[in-house]
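We both want to read discrete structure tokens more fluently, so let's practise on a single case. Once you have written the record down, we can walk along the chain together.
***
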Amino acid sequence: MTSTAAMFDVGDYVVYPKHGVGRVIELQDSEIAGMQLQLYVLRFEKEKMTLRVPFNKAEGVGMRKLSSDKTLKEAMHTLTGKPKVKRTMWSRRAQEYEAKINSGDLVSIAEVTRDLFRPDDQPEQSYSERQIFEAASSRLARELAAMEKTDEKAALQKILAILNEAAPQYYEKAE
């Protein structure tokens, strides 16, 4: 390895904003287009994807360590709040939700999860609402799972339990 010190070590869980939680599986020296580059090799199990990120680009793309306990508590508390649904066109809201998910910010992802959650006794969501909800809740669950050393399914159940407990006070009972 040359001059730049690694911010992440092999085995570390990291968050890559556009892809969620991955694991550093290797630090690699490569020559690309005649330049020596140091790369993080990240593995995203859920997507069965490997990504190589140059050391000098990691911070610029927003790659970070897992959130702090404080941030996790704040995100979980966000789930219990009142859903905020703007009265703008769905296409505009969908773009905003996607931007929040891709920001990699755990609290923003929790906001999307909360805002798009529907209790079982509520009207069905549209397909695109459901897709964005699943993307957000999955991203949140993967980071929660990595932090609590559990699996995504258990983390998702915990998130849904919080949402189901908080939701009744915000929704009219469907007749």
About this structure: The helical segments are 55-58, 69-79, 90-103, 106-116, 127-148, 152-166. The first helix runs from residue 55 to 58. The radius of gyration is 18 Å. The longest strand covers residues 20-32.
